[in-house]
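Retry 2 of 3 after timeout on previous attempt. Resubmitting structure tokens to design endpoint.
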């Protein structure tokens, strides 16, 4: 069983969606260099300064196929009606199929590594829009709060 729970639940406000869309948090790179686990980027959007720091883990930081995984998890969350507690219930097989991947060993390894990156990466962002008229703040979060597995069952619980 895989359990995944993010530090920041999906918000009903549009500000978190706007912040995430503007921050480009998952790198488009297909592969990372060995040992590459962090990046920082400073930029300006509509006169608002933003600084994004990505602190990955031994698996690196989210990149390439992890974007597909994150989008599938978000879509599954919405399709399942956004349960209280923010859980998404699925199997690894269903995740792979929703991502358009085969169910071979390499795909399961890619899924495992992607979940580890999404679970183990912390983002620190300054310039995060808080509420209307209240300015910006610093936000620290992970896409997925925690992940645990029991290989005896093929159930995957994800929280977004």
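Retry 2 succeeded. Sequence:
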């Amino acid at each position: 069983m895989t359990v995944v729970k993010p530090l920041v639940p999906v918000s009903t406000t549009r500000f978190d969606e706007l912040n995430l869309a503007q921050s480009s948090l998952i790198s488009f790179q297909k592969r990372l260099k060995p040992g590459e686990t962090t990046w920082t980027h400073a930029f300006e959007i509509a006169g608002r300064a933003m600084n994004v720091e990505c602190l990955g883990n031994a698996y690196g930081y989210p990149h390439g196929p992890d974007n597909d995984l994150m989008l599938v998890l978000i879509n599954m969350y919405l399709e399942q009606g956004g349960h209280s507690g923010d859980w998404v219930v699925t199997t690894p097989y269903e995740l792979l199929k929703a991502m358009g991947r085969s169910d071979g060993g390499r795909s399961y390894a890619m899924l495992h590594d992607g979940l580890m990156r999404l679970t183990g990466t912390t983002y620190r962002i300054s310039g995060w829009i808080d509420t209307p008229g209240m300015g910006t703040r610093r936000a620290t979060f992970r896409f997925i709060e925690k992940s645990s597995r029991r290989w005896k069952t093929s159930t995957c619980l994800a929280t977004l």
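Attempt log closed. Residues 2-159 form one domain.
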